[in-house]
Design a protein that fits this description.
This protein is mainly alpha-helical and 134 residues long. The chain has helices spanning 21-24, 26-84, 94-98; strands spanning 5-9, 15-20, 116-117, 126-127.
Length: 134
């Protein structure tokens, strides 16, 4: 019975060298395949973690952008109330505040699609996205 051989061929398809398969060692090949599979799994895990971290980073940036917008709205409400002599509890409209916000009231929006409610003069404005609050 002949021993199976493993041959190495060059680009010209001439056989450069052959050696019996038993000397190559199937356990070495299996170990190399196992290592490649482990490396692939590690890369997939890193990609998963990276994509989660990017999503978390974006949510944090969106939250801080929304909070910044809420501060602008609160400042505009205070300026409107003092400039027009409004009593506490007076309800401003978007058009009332547009003159106190660069770009107008509608230039501000929550990056996560939340809706702003101004609330009465003397109270903080709100966003309906959880965690987006002053």
């Amino acid at each position: 019975m002949r021993t199976p051989v493993l041959c190495v061929a060059a680009a010209s398809l001439f056989v450069i060298g052959c050696q019996p398969r038993s000397s190559v060692g199937t356990s070495e090949l299996q170990a190399e395949v196992a290592q490649l599979k482990a490396d692939k799994a590690k890369l997939e895990l890193k990609n998963t973690l990276l994509s989660r971290d990017l999503g978390k980073r974006d949510r944090i940036i969106h939250r801080f952008t929304c909070i910044s917008n809420l501060r602008i709205l609160d400042s505009a409400k205070e300026q409107w109330g003092m400039a027009t002599g409004q009593p506490l509890g007076a309800q401003p409209s978007a058009s009332d505040l547009s003159g106190y916000i660069q770009g107008g009231f509608y230039s501000l929006s929550c990056p996560e699609g939340g809706a702003y409610s101004l609330g009465p003069f003397g109270q903080l404005p709100r966003c309906n996205v959880p965690g987006h609050e002053l």
